[in-house]
steroid 11beta-monooxygenase (Oncorhynchus tshawytscha), 507 residues
Amino acid sequence: MWSVSVSPSVFQGIQGMCMSVRQAACVRIQRGICVCPAGTVAGLGVEGVTPARGGPAGRGGGRGLRRFEEIPHTGSSGWLNLVKFWREDRFKLLHKHMERTFNTLGPIYRERLGTQSTVNILLPSDISELFQCMEGGNIVSNLTVVLSTTRNRTECMEGGNIVSHLTVVLSTTRNGAEWRADRLLLNREVMMAPAVRRFLPLLDEVARDFCRLLATRVEKEGGKEERGYSLTIDPSPDLFRFALEGSSCHVLYGERIGLFSTTPSQESQKFIFAVERMLATTPPLLYLPPRLLWRLGAPLWTQHATAWDHIFKESSVCAPPRLLEVVVGVQRESSGILGQLMDKGQLSLELIRANITELMAGGVDTTAVPLQFALYELGRNPAVQEQIRGQVRVAWARAGGDAHKALQGAPLLKGLVKETLRLYPVGITVQRYPVRDIIIQNYHIPAGTCVQACLYPLGRSRDVFQDPERFDPGRFRSLAFGFGARQCVGRRIAENPSPAAATDARE
C-alpha cells in the first residue's frame, strides 16, 4: 500500500481566460489511487461573496422594454475602468470581479474596458435566448485582430507552405455554409461516439502509464508508514505532462513523446510554458489596441507573440512526419485524429493544420487544471470519492477490460468532470455576437453586441443551482464547453482524460 500527499500549494488566478487554483490534497493509493484531505485544506484566499437572489425578471422586470443604455454598468469610461483593473490587478481574478458585479448590479450588466464593450449575463434563460438567435451568426473577437497583426512577424514553414497565425483564427471564426460543412466533417473525427471509441484507448494507455509512474515514484521516494509508503508532492507538473502526452499528442498524432521518462523533453516543457504564457497575456490584449502595442514593441505584446511562435513551432514539429507520408503517398493505419483527418482527405491541409494546432495548444491547461481541481474536491469529499470509486470498480468488472464500456457504466465519472467545471470553469466566459436585435432581462440589445455568458458566477449562483457550494457529481449540468454548433471542438478530448485516469486507478 502506498500514498501520495499533495503539498499545500495555493495559487488562484486567471491564466488568459483560464482559472487555476492549486490546493492542498492527499492522494492515497491502496491497490490504486484514492484521495483524502491532507490535514487542513487550504482556503481559496479570496473572500466569498453571497450570490445575488434577484428574480428572473432582474432589474426592469414588469416594466416596458428598456433601452440598451439603461442596462446597469460599471462605468461609462472604458479607459478609466481599464486603469482601475490594472492598478488592482483584477485580470488575475476576473471571475471574482464578475461574481461581485452580478451581486451588486443584478443578472445583467454592461462593462467597458479599453476598446472592448460587453454585456454580461448569467441566468440560463437569458443564455438560451442568446444562443437561439445565433444560427449562422458570427463569433469574432478582438483576438482575431491580435493574432492577425503577427502575420508579417511570424510564419511557420512546413514543406514550403507558409502558415500564419491568422490561419488558425480564420479557420475557427468562418461562418455560413462553408464553415458548417467543415465543422461537421471535423466533428466526425473529434466529437462523435465512434471517434471517441477510437481515441479512448490512446488516452487509456497514457493514463495507465501515469498511474504506474506515480506508484513507482512513491515506492522509491516515499517514507515508510504503518499502512505503506507516503510521499508529498506538487501534482501540477505531472498533470501538465500527462495532459500534453495524452490529450495533445497521443490522441492528436497517434505518437508518444516520452514525457514520463526520467529525462523528459525540454522542448515539451517549453511548450507547456508557452501555452501558460499565451493564456496569461491574452486578457489584457483583448482590451488594448493590439496594433499600437505591436508597433511600440510592448513587453506584453512581445511575450504573447513569442509564446505563439513556440506553440506553432512545436505543433509543426509534431505534425510533419504524418504530413510527409500523405504527400509521398505512404499508406499506413492511423490511430491519431490527425491521421484520420488526412486519410479521409475531406479537409484542406491548411484547415487541418489550423485545427490540430488549436487542439494541441488548448488541450494542456484544459485537461491538467480540471484534474487538479477534481483531486482537490475528492480530497475534501471522501464520501463522494468512495461512491465514485465503488461505481468504477463495478463498471470495470462488468466491462471485461473495455475502457469505453467501463466509462459508460460509471456515469459519476463524467459527473465528476462536469461538477468540477461547474465550480472551476477553465474558460470563464462564452462570447456571442447576436445576428439580430434581442431582448434580455427586458433590455434591448442591438445586433453585433458582444454578449458574454459568465460561467464562474453562473456555476455558483443560488438562482441556478441548489446549494451551489456543495460538490455533487450527481448534477449533470454544465456550460463549460458551450452550446450548439460553436461549442468547444475539443470537448470529447477534454472530457475523457479525467475518467480515464480515474478508471486506471481503480484497483
In short: The first helix runs from residue 78 to 87.
